[in-house]
Amino acid sequence: MKATKPNKMGFTLLELLIVILIIGLLSAISIPMYKKAVEKSKVADALSTMQAVSKSEHGWYLVKNNYTKDFANLDIDLYDKDGNKAEDEILQGINYTYELLDTGILATRTNGEYSIYQDYDTKQIMCTPG
Is 0.85 topped by the overall pTM? Predict the structure, then answer.
């Protein structure tokens, strides 16, 4: 009677546990980095919108000698989260709520984490928590 070799086609439990551990470590590192990258893209979008509003406000100021507090008066088309054209002094976007102030624009994160303010005259951008 000839001895047969054991079948070595599968993985051991230890090998599977090591693979699961490696996947867990990689995800623990990559998920926070992913969230940070997503937040950076949202901030970039808000800054782009704020810059467009600021340029449009300067055009309004040259004609009227004051800044408008109504998005409908601006020469750019902005839309709210429901797809309606922006009107009044507040625009509710998906990620930010934009508000036209006397000398600048305020973008408040919808989750309330922070606000970004851009002054029309100095073009200075400030970020405040909460």
Answer: no
